[in-house]
């Protein structure tokens, strides 16, 4: 363990006295635990574990305090993980991530009450958070590809994500992921080589996380723009507002949640004229995975949902060509809609996909998982079910709740529960639910 005092570089180095006081007060507020846990996750980058509950318990003696002065702000660390340092000096990328966490947590503290009082829309909140993180780049043509997929994938699938990333990088496309390992790291790693070959020195590798998941999905070292959104719903909205195209690689419950989120949005009639290309892809060994996902989507959401994406198997070049060509279509579409290139204002997102969902045992049990409802509402409830399963699998609070109260109880139509069981069982059989340790289901399904 290491004790150190860390100064910022390019993050929070010029602050007013009021801002310094706000930072200092964060150490004594209810946000201090939130900041501490997110900071610990960043400092643990590179550890081969996705058990956030175990990480926090293993480093119970870790402390971090904000030290302010008229010359700026510093962070004092005690008992920090050694892997964040080289010869006693913190790795530069991890230092940048650490101050990005501070920036976003302090902003959340400063803005939350204001948002509530002013009645600001969720979309405005997402916009302001991204603007504060300097993630919005005006006058830049569409080229940001969001890559979704699991952190727990096999070697062949990981190599495939790198190859797709490489082909995207050769075409000058930037990458945005959930910032962790697996399918979140692979596209970034591949794209770095593609960008290097093209001598592109301003590539963007954006990692978007949220406080509940970051301890289980620590930012990978390639991320050069880390953003912490307040919760999973705003994280998901940040992806689709920032991105110009979406690629989905194989994954587990979290990837299913992302798929249901974007399909539920694109099924909205108001979004028929908004260009947002969506591709599912993986190596030949992942063909059965996407067939299962496609079957589940067809059964639950119907053929209209299936028509919203293209499945490309074992062809990284074709995926990259598809996305590169689509960027020209997105550019034209944004011009026609008089919309910004840096933030997709035109995309209509209903409140069912914006409202924060706390996956308590009571809330999970009350989810409506029947097909006797509007298709978008059904997609939103299915999304919430998978979000809860993610929480029970890897999030510290969710793991603690499962240990205390037992598995979540999910109820619905017999046919829906059977389809859900087939999909989740395939995730378990393919080791997609959890990276570290044996997997015990955090849910039970009943009709």
CATH architecture of the largest domain: 3-Layer(aba) Sandwich
**Spatial order of the strands in the main sheet?**
9-8-7-6-10-11-12
How far the N terminus sits from the C terminus, by CA atoms, comes to 50 Å
CATH fold annotation of the largest domain: Rossmann fold
Structure classification: alpha/beta
**Share of helix, binned:** 40-55%
The gross shape turns out to be: globular
Strand-residue fraction? 5-15%
Mean pLDDT: 88
| Domain unit count | 3
Number of helices: 16
Radius of gyration: 21 Å
Largest sheet: 7 strands, parallel
Please provide a written account of the structure.
This protein is 47% helix and 14% strand. It is an alpha/beta fold. The chain has three domains: 2-120, MoCo carrier protein-like (MCP/YpsA-like, 2-Layer Sandwich); 132-337, Rossmann fold; 359-446, no CATH class. 51% of the residues are buried. The model has no long low-confidence stretch (mean pLDDT 88).
